[in-house]
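lol ok so funny story. i was supposed to be doing the assay writeup but got distracted and ended up predicting the structure for this chain instead. priorities right. anyway since i did it might as well share w the group, maybe its usefull for someone
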Amino acid sequence: MKIKIVGLTTGDTNCYIFKSKEFINEIKNYELGSFLLPSEWEIENLENNVFFRSDSRDPDDIFNNGFKARNFGKNPKFSQPVYRASQQDIDHYSAVCLAVHPGAAALFPIKLPNQVAPKRSVWLYVCCPKSLYFTCDIQDKVSKTMTVRRRYRLKAACNVYAGEVCCMELSNDRVLAAFRIKRSWSGGDYYSGGSWRIVEKKWNRQFTSSLSYLKSEINYKFPLSAYNSLATPDKTLIEELEKLDVKKFNYKD
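and the output, tada:
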């Protein structure tokens, strides 16, 4: 079955719908297509799990309005993220993308070879969503499905490293803090590694009070001016990815 989803990065796009048990298997047959993630894959009732998002928007905006998918509300009959099989990722107009690791979120906007370097300074938001789709788990499954063509398995395997998760919206009271960070790249692209450090912290006064204990934990883990490593793959990991031996995150940490 195919339906039209409006407001994606490529405009209005026809998306396939498959049941959960068919999803991974069908990607091999429609590798250039877009898919709605099965709604039963949404993990709900999350409370104290912390995730991270890099964004250029100011905290005054996010603390008042939160995050929403760019096409939020444009497809009232369907409220799931769109997975692009050709890129093995989420169409970023269809969902709010976050990362399980702050060093992975800090990579974005990412530095690519032979392109103008992105801004060194960005905002890193600390978020506590109530529900999520674990994109990285889907990518891990695709990377290990041998009936999927090798190029797409490798792409999925590389994307696993970002530890991406996503949701349709994140209300302002679920955004704990904003860290303005400065990034230093070690080479011509993100594969070369680098570091990031927090130069400013802003706490959201509208953050859910029942989770306020997280503030001291986050404050302890991320002191001002301390240098942190960007979560970039080293040579060993790249070699392992070529063999499809994927480094998988522990999503429960």
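Residues 150-160 form the longest helix (11 residues). The mean pLDDT is 85.
back to the writeup now i swear
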